[in-house]
Design brief:
The protein is mainly α. The chain is 90% helix and 0% strand. It has five helices and no strands. Helix 1 (7-36) packs parallel to helix 3 (73-102). The longest helix has 109 residues, at 116-224. The protein is rod-shaped and about 150 Å long.
């Protein structure tokens, strides 16, 4: 897995989150525009969809906040500026959605009443629905976290297996090197022995030639005297 801590990998992941967040923001803007044209139950359903989209945008923003720390310092300032722009845009969308959610007459349509008891019941019902949806989203996130944990565990097992294989390969290579060093040592000893024998043979040859020359000189000298 190239190194997971590599800064280039961090930059690519940040850019991926950035592109995904742009799509989510565009989808959220479209939902906000639709909410403005609705009332009653359709409006409440559209608001719930927009809230889920806003939660997704905030999750992506959180991932970007983490990943921008892995960006090289030479380009991190530009990433920080883009991140702040995203934060500002999402905050504005959040305020706009809250304003639409607080528009009770548009939210409840003809059922809207100034009766406090009736309004309280509607508000409690809305809170209950909102709590149920949050629970569903939390369950989905938990399942997603479990899936990621399982994948991470699988990657960890594969990594450990690769490391074990590399360790065995290194040990085998080390043994081969030690064996090769033994061959080299024996070869050096053999060459040194051959060199000593050649030197000895050369000395013996010179001595024989010297003796023969002296004998020849002695024979010649004895013939003339």
């Amino acid at each position: 897995m190239s190194n997971p801590l590599d800064t280039d990998a961090g930059s690519e992941l940040f850019a991926s989150y950035e592109a995904e967040l742009r799509l989510v923001q565009a989808d959220l803007n479209q939902k906000l525009d639709q909410i403005a044209e609705l009332s009653g139950e359709p409006r409440k359903s559209a608001i719930r969809l927009a809230e889920r989209t806003l939660d997704e945008a905030n999750e992506l923003l959180g991932q970007m906040r983490i990943e921008k720390q892995n960006i090289p310092s030479t380009t991190r300032s530009k990433a920080n500026q883009r991140f702040r722009n995203f934060e500002s845009d999402i905050d504005a969308q959040k305020r706009k959605l809250k304003t639409m959610s607080d528009d009770r007459k548009a939210l409840f349509g003809n059922r809207y009443s100034d009766n406090p008891d009736h309004d309280q019941q509607l508000e409690q019902r809305q809170q209950l629905l909102s709590g149920t949806e949050r629970l569903d989203r939390s369950s989905q996130r938990l399942r997603e976290s479990q899936r990621i944990a399982n994948e991470t565990e699988g990657i960890g097992r594969d990594t450990l297996a690769d490391l074990q294989l590399q360790r065995e390969t290194i040990q085998h290579t080390r043994m081969n090197m030690l064996e090769s060093e033994g061959y080299v040592d024996r070869s050096v000893k053999t060459l040194r022995g051959m060199a000593r024998r050649m030197a000895t043979n050369r000395i013996i040859t010179v001595a024989i030639i010297t003796v023969l020359v002296l004998l020849i000189i002695a024979v010649i000298y004895s013939k003339f005297h």
